[in-house]
Write a structure and sequence with these properties.
single chain; about 425 residues; alpha/beta; Aspartate Aminotransferase, domain 1; Aspartate Aminotransferase, domain 2; three-stranded antiparallel sheet
């Protein structure tokens, strides 16, 4: 019989660093930081201060204070990401950044838009949308998983390039499989053939060291709410200077006919897309400062600690399920995905939607473990993807492995 959450006596095996995240549910092993992130108490308090400032005198805040505050946030983010501040603009998330770029570009019938089978579904949907609207064609490189070498990734992508390839949308770190792609090499090889790359960097900032100037993409968009631990709604878009004149925000607003000459139209348009709560992006410098202070070695130590924890968690779950690790350590950051046995036939209908696998809610209800079961590359195939953040512990991955083993053993035809 399935137990209800109320009938389970459970205490999450959190690390001492969890004191900085006091809002986390204490009776749940939260192993899904990668989906939506988690902000520290200090950042949540800072956001509340900004919201109070906004509400006390909205005209002063939006008309006079906001633009300098955004400049400060983009400056701090530029230093963190190896980008010039004037090339960065705020967006609410990476999906909005992908929309802004792809819906600004003019594609023609016969153009080919290249991506991979590891691309995030929402961003793939944008590619399909602009292709259907223009008569272009989406080509999907089949990058293998399990995978062992960077060459397998690069070769799969480059094998799909043709003279008609116009643009590539490539993840820096893949969402379903948690792989760090050799993005600088991919961007360079595509550029050598005259192909611009839009890098989907949703998971990269804060998880790994990112240097956009070194990668040198045409476009790069990412999230700050995941591994930087800023509030939800904090993202950014980088556009190479020679391309900024052609990229417009997904929402056209007052900047479209602004007559100002003190800054680029690119920044004017993206800085104001209508009245909304901008405090999430304004919290990014505070979030970076807060996370940096959590370990004596700052961000390098934090990234290394999360990487080591992700590897330990992956190894524990693989051992519990008697599964070989599907990727080398060098391709793992703070996420690790592990193939699971296919969903059984004759059970509840399987879909391509996240959080729809029948064992997803059972893991929460019966075992108090929150981790995504991802239908990839398509049902009935599936993965489990674990995350590692400072508040997690190895004990939590032992619990995950034991829970998965028990749940899978009870499935039909197991």
């Amino acid at each position: 019989m399935r137990a209800s959450p109320q009938s389970v006596s459970y205490s999450a095996a959190l690390s001492p660093h969890a004191r900085h995240f006091s809002h986390l549910t204490r009776d749940l092993d939260y192993l899904n930081h990668g989906s939506f992130g988690a902000s520290s108490d200090a950042v949540i308090e800072y956001q509340m201060m900004l919201r109070n400032q906004m509400e006390r005198e909205a005209v002063q805040f939006f008309v006079h204070d906001l633009e300098p505050l955004l400049d400060d946030a983009m400056g701090a983010l530029g230093d963190f990401l190896g980008a010039f501040a004037q090339d960065l603009v705020p967006v609410t998330n990476a999906t909005v950044g992908v929309n802004s770029v792809l819906r600004s570009l003019d594609f023609a019938p016969g153009d080919e838009l290249l991506t991979t089978n590891h691309e995030y579904n929402a961003c793939r949907n944008v590619l399909d949308f602009v292709a259907n609207r223009s008569g272009a064609r989406v080509k999907c490189a089949q990058v293998p998983f399990p995978v062992q070498r960077d060459d397998e990734i690069v070769d799969a992508i480059m094998s799909e390039v043709t003279p008609r390839t116009t643009l590539a949308l490539i993840s820096h770190i893949t969402s379903p499989t948690g792989l760090i792609f050799p993005i600088r090499r991919i961007v360079n090889e595509l550029a050598a053939k005259g192909i611009d790359t839009l890098v989907d960097g949703a998971h990269a900032p804060g998880m790994i060291d990112v240097n956009i100037r070194d990668i040198n993409p045409a476009y790069y968009t990412g999230n700050c709410h995941k591994w930087i631990c800023a509030p939800k709604g904090a993202g950014f878009l980088y556009v190479r200077p020679d391309l900024q004149h052609s990229i417009r925000p997904a929402i056209i607003s007052h900047g479209a006919n602004a007559t100002r000459t003190d800054r680029s139209r690119y920044r004017i348009e993206f800085y104001w897309v209508g009245t909304a709560d901008p405090t999430a992006i304004l919290c990014v410098p505070k979030a970076m400062e807060t996370m940096e202070a959590m370990l004596p070695g700052g961000w390098p130590a934090l990234r290394a600690a999360n990487h080591a924890l992700a590897l330990a968690g992956r190894d524990r779950v693989c051992a519990a399920l008697n599964i070989t690790s599907p990727a080398p350590d060098s391709m793992i950051g703070s996420l690790a995905s592990i193939p699971l046995p296919d969903a059984p036939p004759g059970g509840p209908p399987t879909t391509s939607s996240l959080y729809a696998d029948p064992i997803q809610m059972r893991m929460v209800e019966q075992y108090r473990v929150q981790v995504p079961i991802i239908p990839w590359p398509a049902p009935p195939h599936r993965l489990v993807r674990l995350s590692a953040q400072l508040y997690n512990t190895k004990t939590q991955y032992d619990r995950l492995g034991a829970a998965l083993k028990a749940v899978l053993a009870e499935e039909p035809n197991s």
